[in-house]
Specification:
The protein has 3 helices and no strands. It has 119 residues and is mainly alpha-helical.
C-alpha cells in the first residue's frame, strides 16, 4: 500500500516537472513569435530575445528540479544498488544541465546589465 502511494506521488511530482517545462516552452514560443514579428517591422529585438532565453532557462531549471525530486522519491520504493546508481547518474546529468543553464542565464543577465549601463 505505501509503495503504491509513494509511486503515485513520484509520478505526480514528475508530471508537475513536465507540465512546468511544457508551460514554459509554450509561453516562450508565443512570445518569441511576437518578438520576431516585431523584428520584421524593424524594431530592436535582441534584448527581448535574451529575456526570452532567460525565461525559458528558468522554466527548464524548475522543471528539472521537480524531475530530480520525483526520481529521489521513486528510489525510496526500490533502494537497491542498481536503482541508486541509475538515480545518481540521472541526478548527475540533470545537475550538469542545470549548472550549464544557470551559467548561461547569468551570462545573459550580466550582458544585459552591461548593455543597460552603457546606454
Amino acid at each position: 500500500m505505501i509503495y503504491l502511494v509513494i509511486n503515485r506521488l513520484a509520478f505526480v511530482i514528475g508530471l508537475m516537472g513536465v507540465i512546468i517545462i511544457l508551460w514554459g516552452v509554450t509561453n516562450v514560443f508565443f512570445l518569441a513569435v511576437k518578438t520576431e514579428y516585431r523584428g520584421l517591422r524593424q524594431h530592436f529585438v535582441r534584448k527581448h530575445r535574451d529575456v526570452l532565453r532567460h525565461s525559458l532557462g528558468v522554466y527548464l531549471l524548475l522543471g528539472l528540479e521537480f524531475l530530480v525530486a520525483a526520481d529521489i522519491v521513486r528510489t525510496m520504493i526500490h533502494p537497491a544498488f542498481h536503482e541508486i546508481a541509475v538515480l545518481g547518474a540521472i541526478v548527475l546529468i540533470r545537475t550538469v544541465i542545470g549548472f550549464t543553464l544557470d551559467r548561461e542565464m547569468n551570462a545573459i543577465h550580466s550582458n544585459h546589465n552591461n548593455v543597460i549601463k552603457r546606454l
